[in-house]
Amino acid sequence: MAGKKYYLISPPEENKLNTFILKLTRNLILSGKKFLLFCNTRKEVENLIINFKQAYPDIRDRIMPYRAGYEVEDRTAIEDALAKGKLAGLFCTSALEMGIDISHLDVCVMLGLPGNKISMVQRAGRVGRKEPGAVIICAGDSPYDDYYFSHPKELFERPMEELIINLENKQILIDHFACARAEALNFEVPDFDEDIFDRGFIQIANHVNLYDYPDDILYDQSPHFKVQIRCVDDPTYIIIHGQHSDDPPIGQITYSQILREAYKGAIYLHLGKRYRVTKISYTDHKIYVDSRCPMAQTRPKTEVFVRPRATSRVIKSKIWPGLKVWKTSLSITEKLTGYTETMNKKNNEVSYPQPMIRYFVTSGTVISLSGLDSITHGSVMGLAGALENAYPIVYHCSKDDIGSYAWSKENNEAHIYLFDSTAGGLGITNKVVSLFENLLQVASHNVSQCPNCLANPETADYGCYKCVISNSWFNYAGNTRKETIKLINELSIITSTHMPAEEEVREDFNSKNHLFDRHGDKCFGGTMLVSGSLVYTGKHQEGIVLNSAAFNNGIIEDRLYSIRIGDQEAKYLGSRLTLIQGKVERWCMNCGEELIDFEETSCPVCGVRLR
Predict the structure, then answer these.
(1) 332 and 448: one domain?
(2) What whole-number distance in Å separates Cα of residue 63 and Cα of residue 56?
(3) Is the terminal CB of the chain with fewer CB neighbours within 10 Å at N or C?
(4) What's the CA gap between 67 and 47, in Å, rounded?
């Protein structure tokens, strides 16, 4: 076996990382090396190819971009050009980590450490097969890179991440239920054989409409085409170059990526070219782009809202004075409210009349703080970012698989959420409870010893992307390093001087309160969303509840809601809506009494049991 050598490089202070990478690429091409240069995001790939062609036009044809989302014909042409020696190398993403045989590569370059050890090994495995190879890892701008470049031995001794299959992911089970029901040819009462389907799956199937998960797939006539292997609850859109649906497609993109890269008005980068997104069709799942666009850049304006689900329970917790850490299920609402366009160093702010929405349910951990002296808005936001940045070091997971969110009140109360970024959850951030003390210790080290802040004392009090600003694509202003250090120190004293009270509750389907709790023949309690509540309609839109009325067509007993979406009003059954923010009350399906307190067990008018 030929083998390979590893080189860990931190570009000089005066040399920006991208400039260093462009010069390195030029030198590899001129020296006759065959190489792959891995980036961690699609946008990095596209920006590098554009910048390289501008910087070195004489050798611009010796390298191409390669990532997921290109058409098959384009990917095949790029692979053939590299194999035949027409190209010296590629700027690429993890799409080239495995599955494609490319021989005789001399050098593998990584622009920043990938999010997990598995990806690092797979990328490095591209070289050193028949001839000796070199693996060059350039330090990226993240606390993850800083930590392992300071502890290189830990990087190579770090075990591979666990391959997680979460059989309790309700979103996946709902998707498979929709497909099984379509094959059963009985929409209302599908007959599932226990010899084929697990008893737990059948239990969930019998109560699937009670889950407050996005459930568009339950109403699709051909659900099999909506279930994806690579992601969960993230539909794929076709990118069309033109104005009509029969114009040529140039690629594909998922909805979550649309919110980052291809929202309406965005300058979308594809194969080293710029396109303006002119229209998004949610019905046909198509995006229309125009190549006539300025030499500008766009950046999305995003918000995120996280809350424990109305039906969730505390599954496991640790409690100290003023501090509670507990795992549960969370609802995540991501909003795209507009974008900022930058051209010639001037910014133009664009706001949408109706925000783009992504809603999903996932697993996560809540960190509740109360009555602590160091609670400020800045310290809480900074702690959220510091914990998110530290978690992949403490628990071996990909940094792209988690997110964070936080809010605080003036009365020394705050909540921080660490959550799985996969719909339905993989159980990754559930480990925060058992690892919290260690997580706090690593976060403390990252923030107090941040090399970027220590090298820039004039801005050190505010912190930076290497310590208190998270990796998430949504970020909130107000993170303060100085205040974060005080809060971490206070929490460290509490956790080191007090034994936590621990509590664990078995999560059992039958013991949960559901939004539509109608188990048994003698229960007459339905649930209703109070007027003014904010809801997700299942069509990447949110709306406000205006009013509702009982609905019964002999088959379905539900409530029919009037929802205001923008300046329009639409009707939705309650089973199609997901509560984002607002209040849930009960109504009696026996006498029709409404707005009964959710905790009531019997109807105050007719006396029947509600739950």
Answers:
(1) yes
(2) 11
(3) N
(4) 13
The pairing of beta strand 35-38 with beta strand 107-111 = parallel
Dihedral pair phi/psi, residue 192, rounded to 5°: -105, 125
Enumerate the β-bridge partners of residue 303. Answer: 335
Report yes or no: 605 and 593 within 8 Å, Cβ to Cβ.
Answer: yes
The set of residues, in sequence order, having a beta carbon less than 8 Å from that of 346 and lying 6+ positions away, is none
Examine the domain organization and report whether 325 and 460 are in the same domain.
yes
Rg (CA), the chain: 26
Which amino acid is residue 118, in one-letter code?
I
> How far apart, in whole angstroms, are the C-alpha atoms of residue 71 and residue 571?
39
Give CA–CA dist 544/563, Å, rounded: 5
Rounded Cα gap, residues 420 and 401, in angstroms:
6
**Residue tagged 């689900």 (tokens):** 309
Long-range CB contacts (within 8 A, 24+) of 263-267 = 263/300, 263/336, 263/339, 263/356, 264/352, 264/356, 265/298, 265/339, 265/341, 265/350, 266/298, 266/300, 266/339, 267/293, 267/294, 267/296, 267/297, 267/298, 267/341
Q: Show the domain range for 186.
A: 170-215
The amino acid sitting at 9 is: I
Phi, psi of 148 (to 5 degrees): -80, -25
For residue 476, tell me if it sits in a domain.
Answer: yes
Do residues 440 and 495 make contact, with C-beta atoms less than 8 angstroms apart? yes
CATH assignment of the domain containing 56: 3.40.50.300
CB burial of 306-320 (b: ≥16 within 10 Å; e: otherwise) equals: bbbbbbbbebbbbeb
Same domain, yes or no: 565 and 416: no
- Specify the 3-state DSSP secondary structure of 189: coil
286 and 310 in a single domain? The answer is no
Give the Cα separation of 87 and 104 in Å (integer).
Answer: 13
Number of domains, the chain? 5
Burial class of residue 430 (count of CB atoms within 10 Å of its CB; 0-12, 13-18, 19+): buried
206-209, long-range: CB < 8 A, 24+ apart: 207/509, 207/514, 208/174, 208/177, 209/516, 209/575
How far is it, in rounded angstroms, from Cα 441 to Cα 283? 48
φ/ψ bin of 92: left (φ > 0), alpha (ψ from -120 to 50), beta (otherwise): beta
Is 451 found in the same domain as 355?
yes
Give the pLDDT of residue 269. Answer: 96
Asked whether residue 611 is assigned to any structural domain, the reply reads: no
| Separation CA 523–CA 516 (nearest Å) | 11
The residue with tokens 């790029």 is 78
Dist CA 42 CA 46 (whole Å): 7
> Residue 361: inside a domain, yes or no?
yes
Q: Do residues 65 and 79 share a domain?
A: yes
- Spans in the chain with pLDDT lower than 70: 1-2, 13-15, 165, 167, 187-189, 207-216, 219, 229-230, 310-314, 411, 471-478, 505-522, 538-540, 553-556
479 and 382 within one domain: yes
Per residue in 182-209, pLDDT (tens digit) is 887 776 667 787 778 777 777 777 766 6
pTM of full prediction above 0.90: no
Burial of 370 (0-12, 13-18, 19+ CB in 10 A): middle
